[in-house]
Amino acid sequence: MSQQLKRREFIKISGAGVGGMMAGSGLLQAVDFSNPQTDSEELIERKGTERTATYCEMCFWKCAGWVYKKDGKPWKIVGHAEDPNSNGRFCPRGTGGIGAYTDKDRLKTPLIRVQKNGKQVFRKATWDEAFEYIARKMNIIKEEHGPDCIALFTHGSGGSYFKNLLRGFGSNNVAAPSYAQCRGPREEAYMLTYGEVVGSPERTDMQNSKCIVLLGSHLGENMHNGQVQEFVEAVAGGASVITVDPRFSTAASKSKYWLPIKPATDLALLLAWIHVIIYEELYDKEYVEQYTYGFEQLKASVKHNTPEWAYPITTIKPHLIRETAREMARYAPATLVHPGRHVTWYGDDTQRVRANAILNALLGSWGRRGGFYAPAKAKVKKPQIPDYPEFKRSWRDAFPGKYPLANLAISSGICDATIPTPERDCSFKGWIVYGTNLPLTLPQPEKTYEAIQNLDLLVAVDIMPSEITGWADVVLPECTYLERYDDLRISQGRVPTVALRAPAFKPKYDSKPAYWMDRELSKKLNLQHYFPHETMESYLNERLKSIGSSLEELQQIGVKRLDNLYSLYYLNGEDYTFATASGKIELYSTLLAEAGYDPIPKYKAHEEPPEGYYRLVYGRAPMHTFGRTINNPHLHDLKSENEVWINRKVAELWGIRDGEYIILENQDGKQSNRIKVKVTERIRHDTVYMVHGFGHTDKRMRRAYNKGADDNALISKVHVDPIMGGTGMRGNFVTFKREAA
Ligand SMILES: Nc1nc2c(c(=O)[nH]1)N[C@H]1C(S)=C(S)[C@@H](COP(=O)(O)OP(=O)(O)OC[C@H]3O[C@@H](n4cnc5c(=O)[nH]c(N)nc54)[C@H](O)[C@@H]3O)O[C@H]1N2
Ligand SMILES: Nc1nc2c(c(=O)[nH]1)N[C@H]1C(S)=C(S)[C@@H](COP(=O)(O)OP(=O)(O)OC[C@H]3O[C@@H](n4cnc5c(=O)[nH]c(N)nc54)[C@H](O)[C@@H]3O)O[C@H]1N2
Ligand code: SF4
Ligand SMILES: [Mo]
């Protein structure tokens, strides 16, 4: 079909029901935001209530909880008391999860792109038609180009079934923006240093930390539940917090020290801290001696990185750099220099996070109480499936010699490799996009659109008519997490736990769970042997049998705690072998040296904003997750648009008033949607800030449409991490424009 449709047009609207904005669904009153901690036992005893076990899909912390119904109607969602990710409390987004289910703008039926009266439109299709279409296209691509010319982009629980399907089909090109646009550099930096990743939930022992250092990491706005709870606990217990942020974040307001660093210079600060810790002999000598490799090289390398050297770079005064370094050493090893999560900032991110990992090693905090614990290891067997065919080509072939230390596929790389170039023998021809809204998620959106124009097949699996669905050939409406089973959530953490997600409601409209989609699609592709279980119930039951449990038990208890057979901390004096080349914690990285990169991080200056421009940085709001919750009836009511934070003096200089709407224009002339101004002292003069996820352009999301601005529209420049391909996204600069009258 899409051969006849020459250029893919964005399908804006389906005609019906465009008028009048829907008001909140009335359910808001029923959802209790004020007291998220509710005693489940007490609730279940109330007449007419029933509960179903779930784990939350409103973000990727995956808190376990209970969905309550009263007289058959949705009532409330609460945290599961036995769950270490939530400790019985949900965050506002989790509590508002009911809104994902009730949202009237949801995708309702499968859709197929067709040409009608010279215009591209979606027509409603049956599931069988949709699967026929997809299978036919996939087979054509396989025949003409090879199965590996189809890629999967995924974020979220159901992605695993699509991954299984695609691998069975012969392609291992599976990418998640949570790697190259998020925590990839962190995982590779810790891997290079300790031979292990940080993982999610982070293995940070914050509840026992006496000193916490946050670089960016805006905990409290970044609302990862258990982590925020531990942070609050540590602060209440008197932990000393050092926050490094060009903005006075919520975390900064809880801190003993706020260091309003000049953005893009954190590596210089980290090296100066390392300098002070080494040259004032504040490091953990026994730990360094016993466990680390390359101390002398490190010492020599940071010799010139004095606080006086770092001062003009970072604008942090030398005495403050010394004082904060001493503060960290005072509480070590119960000092946690937080490794961050969204770390794709400036392109040298693996090196910056390496410096962070090195600093933790000098403080002896890895494997120590109050630093990083060794997460529990839970093994819950998966049912056997046949081996996948051999994968002939990988995304790597598109980038010979590049990103040698990337351990996962790079979404932005797959996007690039979809745009044909003379050197490349094959570019990607098909994308399956599960639960990730690429136009708002991958930087350089104009590249994403160009790549899309070169596809023969684009399948979008989503619950909402998000922007990506407007570009798809086939749209598959998934039911929400409250209407489906999914695979078990296995959290390592301090105690290994297994949590169940079971359907609390029947799927609304003609939406279906991803497992069912993949099993049906597998039949059309003759790949059903990769989906041996007819239902999720039977799959889950078999999995749970391997730990002596059953689906029935999990339906009753929701969360099962397993034994942790390992110690959380290193035993004093015990020898350990680390999974690095030297078997030690590598202050000097042998792998980086071999691959031709700095084995010890070195500071290199980044580009500065031109005259009249300000650096654009972005972050989170506690009541929203990226762009995925903006249309949620309950959460939209809590925050319906974002603001751009501008320093008071800068605003005065431009004559910009608080509350007025302006347009941001970046160094390449890209303009934002109109955005409200927040004039504040809480940000540096050279930086502006906005929350990511707003500025939706798809009218089918009636609440979110045209509210606030999309930071991604201004991220037309990226700085790619040469080590692992992460896309540094904070090297864009904006100036201010008045709205056209
Ligand atoms: N409510 C909510 N919580 C979430 C999410 C969500 O969507 N909503 N998303 C989750 C996900 S997937 C992730 S990855 C995390 C992301 O959350 P974090 O990992 O905390 O993200 P950061 O980029 O570290 O934090 C943004 C902060 O960095 C500051 N900053 C900007 N530039 C610089 C700089 O050059 N140096 C320093 N030191 N600071 C700088 C900004 O001012 C801002 O305060 O949040 C998670 N938690
Ligand atoms: N400009 C900019 N870009 C960023 C970031 C940023 O701060 N600024 N943050 C980066 C980070 S840290 C990350 S982790 C990524 C995250 O990026 P994404 O994972 O792409 O996050 P969302 O934009 O929320 O897109 C999620 C999509 O999943 C859909 N969805 C929600 N629930 C379900 C479900 O149950 N099933 C299915 N099938 N679909 C569902 C939503 O409707 C939405 O379309 O973005 C990265 N990109
Ligand atoms: S942190 Fe909030 S949104 Fe994320 S999984 Fe937990 S309750 Fe849900
Ligand atoms: Mo992320």
What does this 3D model show about the protein?
By secondary structure, this protein is of the alpha/beta class. The protein folds into four domains: 27-95 and 482-506 and 532-562, 2-Layer Sandwich (Formate dehydrogenase/DMSO reductase); 109-171 and 391-478 and 513-531, Rossmann fold, CATH 3.40.50.740; 202-372, Dimethylsulfoxide Reductase, domain 2; 614-738, Barwin-like endoglucanases. Helix content is 28%, strand content 16%. It is built from 22 helices and 27 strands. α8 (266-279) packs across α12 (318-331). The longest helix is centred in the N-terminal third of the chain and has 19 residues, at 127-145. The protein is globular, with a radius of gyration of 26 Å. The site of one ligand MGD has 33 residues, from α6, α15 and β14. The site of molybdenum atom has 4 residues, from α6.
Short description:
The protein is α/β, with parallel strands linked by helices and 741 residues long. Helices cover 28% and strands 16% of the residues.
Which key features would you list for this structure?
Rossmann fold, binds iron/sulfur cluster, alpha/beta, 6-stranded mixed β-sheet, binds ligand MGD, 28% helix, 7-stranded mixed β-sheet, Formate dehydrogenase/DMSO reductase, binds molybdenum atom, 4 domains, globular, 22 helices
